[in-house]
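Comment thread on ticket #2218

A.B. wrote:
> Attaching the input chain for the structure job we discussed in standup.
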Amino acid sequence: MNDVALRIFFDESGKRNSKPNLMGGFSIPSDLYESDKFQTWTLLIIQSSFPALNSKTKSLTVI
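C.D. wrote:
> Ran it. Output below, let me know if you need it in another format.
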């Protein structure tokens, strides 16, 4: 059996004093998450979601 490093992400829907209505999580193998192709996809998603970054950001490191 081989060891695999994972990035684990968790989010919940609650705000400050309100109880969470929805919780979710997922894991991505670190070698995939840290790959150039994944970082490129992430940058494209961020730039399309936040157009103001297009003119200000030429590169982005997502950790």
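A.B. wrote:
> Thanks. Noting for the ticket: The chain has a mean pLDDT of 78.
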